[in-house]
Write a structure and sequence with these properties.
The chain is an alpha/beta fold.
Length: 208
């Protein structure tokens, strides 16, 4: 049972969005080719889905600027610009993404007091989203991940997949992903590789 997990391919992380990732929109046609490739039995997409005034927003902390480190509920937390606020255009999946073919769309990051980079659980690892149980129930043996942003939500989701779905083969699709900083992307790929995550490109999956 092969599954594709599309992380946070939302307007907010694409050019023009509130937390735009360089070339974030370039992942959309590649994600669509993967969706239509017939390589997957199950396709899941996640959405960063914050309430207004979320604790990860610099604007919620007087004197803090975006991209400064601060503390949230006792844990080091990057301060982000307001992004992906529930119900706004910024939070919608990219309009060109083939959502009709996605089996499950799940939201994360709804708790004010803790951020949730991973699609599986909050950063403090207390609350889970239910995704790991769903993938287990579906009998998923192989999980490929891609999307935005490589150095945050994609990496944390991939590492959680390894931990929470023991025995599942996990791969990161590099050309179907983009990150916030080049150094962050290089470090994230190294960390994923060191943990046993396969690093592949869409061409390795889609036979042309
Ligand atoms: C993300 C920062 C803050 C992501 C979400 O999707 O990678 N990054 N919220
Ligand atoms: Zn976020």
């Amino acid at each position: 049972m092969k599954a594709l997990l599309l992380i946070d391919i939302q307007n907010g992380f694409c050019p023009g969005g509130n937390l735009a990732v360089p070339d974030g929109d370039k992942v959309v046609p590649i994600a669509n080719r993967l969706i239509q490739s017939g390589s997957y039995d199950l396709i899941v997409a996640s959405q960063d889905w914050h309430p207004e005034g979320h604790g990860s927003f610099a604007s919620s902390h007087p004197g803090k600027q975006p991209f400064e480190l601060h503390v949230l509920s006792g844990k080091e937390q990057m301060m982000w610009p307001d992004h992906c606020v529930q119900g706004t255009r910024d939070a919608e999946l990219h309009p060109d993404l083939r959502v009709q073919e996605i089996d499950l769309i799940l939201q994360k990051g709804e708790n004010h007091h803790v951020d949730s980079y991973s699609a599986f659980r909050d950063n403090d690892q207390h609350a889970i989203t239910g995704l790991s149980d769903f993938l287990k129930e579906q009998g998923v043996t192989d999980l490929d991940l891609c999307g935005l942003a490589t150095d945050y939500c994609v990496k944390f989701s991939a590492l959680d997949a390894l931990q929470m779905l023991p025995g599942t083969k996990v791969r990161f699709i590099e050309d179907a992903s983009r990150g916030i900083t080049p150094d962050g992307v290089a470090a994230a790929i190294e960390e994923m590789r060191a943990n046993g995550i396969g690093i592949v490109n869409s061409a390795d999956i889609i036979s042309s």
